[in-house]
C-alpha cells in the first residue's frame, strides 16, 4: 500500500464494522453453546423457526427467507428428515413442488429451541433500553439494504 491509501482502521466507521462483526460472532457462539443439549445448531434453529412460523414452505422459499442458496440447506434438510423433525409433502396444486412441514417432534424441538434463543436475547440485551435496541435494529436494516443492493449489482 502506498502512503496515500487509507487503512481500514483509519476509517471513522471501522469501530462500528468490527463491533457488528464481533457481536455477530459472539451471538452465534453463545447460541451454538446453548442449543448443544438439543443436538442442533443455529442453522437448524433457523429452519425450525421458519417452518414453525410459515408452515408448508418450499425448499426454495425457505432458502430465500434464510438468505442462503438452496444448496446450502439441501444437506441439512435430509438430516432433519432422518431425525423425524421435518417431512416433505407434495403440493396439492403443483405436483412438482414439495412443501416442508414440522413433525410433532420437530414442533416440540422448535418450541424448546426458540425458548433458548429468547433467553439468550434477553440476557444479551437486557442492559440495553428498548429504544436503543430499536435504533440498533434500524441501523442494521440500513446496512442490510446497502449490502443487499451491492450484492444484487454483482
Automatic annotation (TrEMBL):
Q: Which residues cross the membrane?
A: none
Q: Residue limits of the HTH marR-type domain?
A: 1-149
> Which controlled-vocabulary keywords does the entry list?
DNA-binding, Transcription, Transcription regulation
Q: Which domain of life is it from?
A: Bacteria
Pfam families named in the record: MarR_2 (PF12802)
Q: Which SMART domains match?
A: HTH_MARR (SM00347)
Q: Name one GO molecular function term.
A: DNA-binding transcription factor activity
Task: List the InterPro entries hit by this protein, alphabetically.
Answer: HTH_MarR-typ, Tscrpt_reg_MarR-type_CS, WH-like_DNA-bd_sf, WH_DNA-bd_sf
Q: Does Transcription regulation show up as a keyword for this record?
A: yes
Q: Specify the protein name.
A: MarR family transcriptional regulator
What is the species of this protein? Pseudorhizobium pelagicum
